Amino acid sequence: MASPVRTTAEKVQSMWNGNKLSANANMFLLLFLFSWLSSATASVSYDHRAIIIDGQKRILISGSIHYPRSTPEMWPDLIQKAKDGGLDVIQTYVFWNGHEPSPGKYYFEDRYDLVKFIKLVQKAGLYVHLRIGPYVCAEWNFGGFPAWLKYVPGIEFRTDNEPFKAAMKTFTEKIVGMMKAERLFQTQGGPIILSQIENEYGPVEWTIGAPGKAYTNWTAQMALGLDTGVPWVMCKQEDAPDPIIDTCNGFYCENFTPNKKYKPKMWTEVWTGWYTEFGGAVPTRPAQDLAFSVARFIQNGGSFANYYMYHGGTNFDRTSGLFVATSYDYDAPLDEYGLPREPKWSHLKYLHKAIKLAEAALVATDPAVTSLGKSQEAHVFNSSSGCAAFLANYDTKYSSRVSFGNRQYKLPPWSISILPDCKTEVLNTGRVGQSPPVDMTPVNTTLSWQSYIEDAASSTDDNTVTLDGLYEQINITRDATDYLWYMTDITIGPNEEFLKNGSYPLLTIDSAGHALHVFINGQLSGTVYARLASPKLRFNDTVKLRAGINKLALLSIAVGLPNVGVHFETWNAGVLGPVTLKGLNSGTWDMSRWKWTYKTGMKGEALSLHTVKGSSSVEWVEGPLLAQKQPLTWYKSIFHAPPGNAPLALDMASMGKGQVWINGQSIGRHWPGYIAHGSCGNCSYAGTYTENKCRTNCGQPSQRWYHVPQSWLNQSENLLVAFEEWGGDPTKISLVARSYENLGQTLYNIEGGSNHLRLQL
Ligand SMILES: *[C@@H]1O[C@H](CO)[C@@H](O)[C@H](O)[C@H]1NC(C)=O
Ligand SMILES: *[C@@H]1O[C@H](CO)[C@@H](O)[C@H](O)[C@H]1NC(C)=O
Ligand SMILES: *[C@@H]1O[C@H](CO)[C@@H](O)[C@H](O)[C@H]1NC(C)=O
Ligand SMILES: *[C@@H]1O[C@H](CO)[C@@H](O)[C@H](O)[C@H]1NC(C)=O
Ligand SMILES: *[C@@H]1O[C@H](CO)[C@@H](O)[C@H](O)[C@H]1NC(C)=O
Ligand SMILES: *[C@@H]1O[C@H](CO)[C@@H](O)[C@H](O)[C@H]1NC(C)=O
Ligand SMILES: *[C@@H]1O[C@H](CO)[C@@H](O)[C@H](O)[C@H]1NC(C)=O
Ligand SMILES: *[C@@H]1O[C@H](CO)[C@@H](O)[C@H](O)[C@H]1NC(C)=O
Prior knowledge:
- The chain is of the alpha+beta class.
- The protein is about 20% helix and about 30% strand.
- The chain has 4 domains: about 45-340, Glycosidases (TIM Barrel); about 365-435; about 440-450 and about 615-740, Jelly Rolls; about 455-600, Galactose-binding domain-like (Jelly Rolls), CATH 2.60.120.
- The radius of gyration is 28 Å and the shape is globular.
- One 2-acetamido-2-deoxy-beta-D-glucopyranose (NAG) binds near residues 380 and 382.
- The site of one 2-acetamido-2-deoxy-beta-D-glucopyranose (NAG) has 4 residues, from helix 8.
């Protein structure tokens, strides 16, 4: 693509004059569409320096937006904001378990309408990087694998295993076939310029050795055989077979080198923050450090950087991976609700503009590196295509004044200045604008509640099965629900000593995870829950048994299936024992081999209490009879939608743990009762960042607010249903709006260098 002949200085001037750039950009877009339409020349290839699209080497800025983590109604706006933020590419995984909920039964509608999502990206004029996986990790339930896959006879995940390879191939072919049929690959005139097969497989391969190596090779050949016409990448896979490009994921990737000289240096996951786990503090990553890491990657010869996540969104329904919170905000440039997170979004937007001003010079050559001081360097891209320089200060404490080409530049600690013409500093990554905080404000909607208490399950219920011994939870539930009841009878003879001496027996239950409520004769006797770092748990407490038959009912709760780890499919959940009772005349009873009766799911789930139709199948009470702080309670409220279009959330701070639905749609698991542990501290942007460095919310719920998509609401008669497992106060639940009146008011104060500019975005 030719661009209008202008000097870089003019371009710099026009860029900082705000919208004047768009005339240039429009021309650019026209030329771009023109070359796109003449698809005879459509091609994507690469060389050592960059991805080459229709003959043009490109510096590509990309961002992850996972389509099922928002609603289709949100997609156009998210994509537009990504474009406004300076992105060229939208990257997404493909979520197998959403698309094939049971074998051979495919689903591509609503939030899983992959083709619609890709076409919206195309309509906005952006490219797509499609990470088919089909293993995706992604803090997503089972890493994207359908639960049924585990029960295919003889299967072992992600290794040289025939049943696994057959299933993986079928799904990959299905997706590639769909993309081809819709003409979505770039060579067909579509937006997909890159694909990905497998995902972060290198660490698994190092662990398992030869079968891993064979699997990698098979995977590569299988993908290449699908003949998509666009390059494949494998991330975190140092031995990615040719011509597949191995790529880097991480907080920093400046020192990454691809495995062959003729492959470009690509960063498939620039971590913009980190995920929140239930019980964990909330990770954040400062905008300065994020921008610094990207600028450093580009100055070191990188040519593709993808923000993971650009919009993190929400783990609706039961899509979260093990112990992963419902919010997948990720401290991304677009927050969970789709609003720009300032100053991060704007800072990156300006970074992208600065990089794009240098693009022609960057792709033409490798950088020449010169020292400017003890911890200061210049990276200069100088050729007949232009001159661009990056001036870096790696010192984490002190700013530095450096001389470059007869000029002086002041570099804050841990920062890079970009000079697209080797003279004019248009941006320093360490100088960031100020923004007013975004808040949650109550909206004028009153929620009035009704409740229905569900009894602890009983062995005389319908749909139970009695087995000898203890069984793994997912084997029985097949992940159709979080809940599995384990029930047995404990018969206490009249002569037990403890009945006379005022003590109670000690019940000890070992569970593979993830949370457990213990009911004795219908009364909750205790609750135990684990955490991500160690999902196993133990209940160990005295229980009030009486003479005669005692009904023990254990409610074992899965909090998502694991999404990462070698052979994570073999990790168990549920009460696997031992289960023992101590303090009886005859000593300790081992109950592990007793007959146990199993019941899958809650009664309210079977009755579909979360739907309009189902909710009328039980008697609800209200007013003074409203249940509070009671376990196993269903709550419902009918409400009017508040006026306006601000993104909405439920403030669930007064509740324990459970699930919430709006008009029959699941907004996910709530668990504000899990208070964030760990350390939160002051967070300096300078110095190497880790996921533990900048955390907030210590002593507060890990997640207090739960996104309610506007598109799920009707004007009136909205049905809100919450299932509370262990007890909460629904009268304090409120609907709040994410305030964004101050957005667009970010003051961008760029000082130093040759630019003293104060821009209003
Ligand atoms: C890789 O797989 C291909 C096709 O399955 C096979 O022909 C080749 O021998 C394998 N190479 C290695 C190094 O295993
Ligand atoms: C770039 O190259 C030109 C031509 O060789 C040279 O005159 C100029 O000084 C170089 N600029 C920098 C910053 O190295
Ligand atoms: C809140 O809504 C009610 C009912 O729609 C209305 O009567 C009242 O004036 C509203 N209050 C405010 C502060 O907007
Ligand atoms: C799964 O449960 C069935 C009984 O429903 C049992 O026969 C089988 O051994 C279990 N498999 C595993 C892997 O636990
Ligand atoms: C269970 O609790 C008892 C009484 O508090 C204690 O003595 C025992 O060590 C505990 N056992 C385990 C396995 O934690
Ligand atoms: C009561 O009797 C039980 C069973 O013999 C025994 O284990 C326990 O230590 C006794 N407790 C007291 C307080 O004497
Ligand atoms: C909301 O409105 C839609 C369309 O009018 C309707 O199909 C749906 O049943 C309504 N939902 C509820 C919970 O009333
Ligand atoms: C954190 O440190 C910075 C820089 O030292 C300081 O300006 C800021 O006030 C500190 N914030 C808190 C909450 O301590």
